[in-house]
From TrEMBL, chains A, B:
Its main location: cytoplasm. This is Proline--tRNA ligase. The keyword Aminoacyl-tRNA synthetase applies. The gene is proS. Homodimer.
Length: 437, 437
């Protein structure tokens, strides 16, 4: 994109309403704009990050055998009465009456709806197991929304659901999702740690939260340094191999990891001091196994091989997609701005034209832009060099291709890596090869 | 995907609640399930169609210079009071009160919100023109939702907005969108005809509706046969060339096209009889130019080159993305089921295993599936051949690769083209080459 023709309204001043760094940087870099308390519009650069994150989730969920669906945002209150959660949910549920005075709600999660869909669609044990997920907007009417997209009211979430015939198969689904989640976060360029968690309002027997490490994280976390070198390769663990899934799960859960709320100082003291790591974390996902809680309450059963009814065992699996945009920034920024991991960056590179209107400089910039296309943001504004440097650092593109009249006369550009600050003088050809990686 | 492990619940019986063919076929082919009146969940095959349509829209809107953004579904009532539409909109607007008793609504369209975003983000004439669009869920609380996704309450829509400094530039944006829309519908494999339209509740001076031809369409349409052979090629009309945009617009609007409501029998009688075409149509998009209506009411102005305030000229541009899934089926089906155009089909091909469990047949099917991957739906169910034939015709995959034990013994398969019914005996290699196209 050409910056002169784009809606990327960067801001120099620190917005007064933003208390934390990711919120400040998302506003300053022109990624989002608040529309109501806890409700945001995503401008072009912000939406590109959101799409990148969603597509990483999709790719790895597909590999893990999950099918994508999409459920509506507005649900019927009657559906939630079947599970007993309509009255139980409290004021965070946004309750609505339509023109016929029917009670509706904006879905905060979808266990009920998908159980009802399965109940209508699936009759035989032959149709299970199934693993389904969606990436859809949800609403939770937080009493005091804050921290930007980290705790918004309308938020974008991946929620997945597994349906299995028995406990062993459900545990296998749970373990498959744990592996898939670890690979998803790895593919985004962040380090996540799974921690045993309470099951909360969804209920159930087994749950893990995933936290990414960020100095500004909401929780203190304690973990074994072995998490820093986990091998998640396809050769090490296959989704199709039960022994692999079990070995992976056993390895994950054998290592110490806890938030400060669940920290066990005795167990911690048994870990060699050299292996202990402390930090802060932000929760970005959670997985639950909860058995037949919903299938029994909602009367979802399939006919088994012997003709007997089986209530499927269920689990649910969430990733905060919009939350991750903020969490990644909390984990990866400096005083000058965002430092996007390559995999989620809105643009892979910025092209900075230091002398707009100089024919040689313009020509080399156009050549660079033609070579990178949509992966690049071309800063073609009639602005000072200092402003372009500051905005590129703020927006956090992994690469900056800096083109001024002196270098351009010799066909040379300066290539800067945002994360390390490393700079090199290179020909345009070598630059493009390096940026395309 | 393997059908045995997929949630594609086909139905043999005609669903009683569905009055029109696309609604019946979408239910029967397992694409959607109703959750409340006029509110649908999209199952895996249906969602693939929705994504295909959305991605065609994205690709061509990007070429036309539009930037994608994403606005929230829940809006503040105060925003709509600024334009005067909050009270004017009527009972189709879903009005909501949050836990703090603030008046909110589920957006039926986004002129107000984007005008407010631009007002906060853009100060100078240098920042215009801009063209922005989103693909987002909307809600209109229809009093009697019907016809499935053709007239749902929660629906998926592409809505775009242009902001220009003067009338000439706004007209250019309008014409660019008309060209982009015609290319979008062409790329989906349907024929669309632009017709001069009333501006309705959005207001303004100029509007066109796009109808696709379908024997079951809601409106009668009358048009010049020249629409059947419109050249939309990039070499004929460039988005960057004003003379091209003008020539395209003049050509489109010089040809007769009208729904029965606006039919002009005198003008019609002046068209040579051989050039007259009559049919039925379904509205799938509409474009509006409405000048400074919103920018004035909402106080959005930029500073012009001479320091004077300029209220930008606006237009808005809609495509019914979820509606199109139904409209395309209305335009393309037969007694046996859906006939998907290649570009939007959920799967490019189905592989029908006629003897599940026969080693040779299974092996050849697996080979075909490995060769096509995610583009194919492999019917590996332990079902009768007749059921597999019927379901493949119902689901409407462009190609069927039919593999039985006799052919498999010689490495041969039968390839059927759904649209024409043509069949051929081919080697697997030739089949894959043909299906990959």
């Amino acid at each position: 994109m050409r910056l002169s023709r784009s809606l990327i309204p960067t801001i120099k001043e620190t917005p007064a309403e933003a208390q934390i760094v990711s919120h400040r940087l998302m506003l300053r870099a022109g990624l989002i704009r608040q529309q109501s308390s806890g409700i945001y519009a995503w401008l072009p650069a912000g939406l590109r990050v959101l799409h990148n994150i969603a597509n990483i989730v999709r790719a790895e969920q597909t590999r893990a055998g999950a099918q994508e669906i999409l459920m509506p945002t507005i649900q019927s209150a009657d559906l939630w009465r079947e599970s007993g959660r309509y009255d139980a949910y409290g004021p965070e549920m946004l309750r609505i009456r339509d023109r016929h005075d029917r009670e509706m709600l904006y879905g905060p999660t979808n266990e009920e709806m998908l159980t009802a869909i399965m109940r209508d669609s699936v009759q035989s044990y032959r149709d299970l197991p199934q693993m389904l997920y969606q990436i859809q907007w949800k609403f939770r009417d937080e009493v005091r929304p804050r921290f930007g997209v980290l705790r918004g009211r309308e938020f974008y979430m991946k929620d997945g659901y597994s349906f299995d015939l028995d406990y062993a198969s459900a545990v296998s689904s749970y373990r498959r999702m744990m592996l898939s989640y670890m690979r998803i976060f790895r593919d985004m360029g962040v380090r996540a740690i799974p921690m045993r968690a309470d099951t909360g309002p969804i209920g159930g027997d087994l749950s893990h939260e995933f936290h990414i490490l960020a100095p500004t994280g909401e929780s203190g976390v304690f973990y074994d340094k072995a998490f820093e070198t986990i091998d998640l390769g396809n050769d090490t663990y296959s989704y199709e191999n039960q022994a692999d899934l079990d070995a992976f799960f056993d390895h994950m859960t054998s290592l110490y990891a806890a938030t400060d709320e669940k920290h066990d100082t005795v167990a911690w003291s048994n870990i060699p001091e050299a292996d202990r790591r402390e930090g802060r974390g932000i929760e970005i996902g959670q997985i639950f196994y909860f058995g037949t809680k919903y299938s029994e309450k909602m009367g979802f059963a399939v006919v088994g091989p012997d003709g007997a009814k089986i209530h499927p065992e269920m689990g649910s699996y969430g990733i905060g997609v919009s939350r991750l945009t903020g969490a990644i920034i909390e984990a990866s920024h400096d005083d000058a701005g965002i430092i996007w991991p390559d995999a989620v960056a809105p643009f892979h590179a910025a092209i900075l034209n230091l002398r707009q209107g100089d024919a040689t400089t313009d020509a080399l910039c156009e050549q660079a832009y033609a070579g990178l296309g949509d992966a690049a943001l071309y800063d073609d504004r009639p602005a000072r060099a200092g402003e372009k440097f500051a905005d590129a650092d703020l927006m956090g593109h992994p690469w900056q291709i800096i083109i001024g009249p002196r270098g351009a006369a010799n066909g040379m550009v300066e290539l800067k890596r945002r994360r390390t600050g490393e700079r090199a003088e290179l020909s345009l050809e070598d630059t493009l090869a390096k940026v395309r990686g």
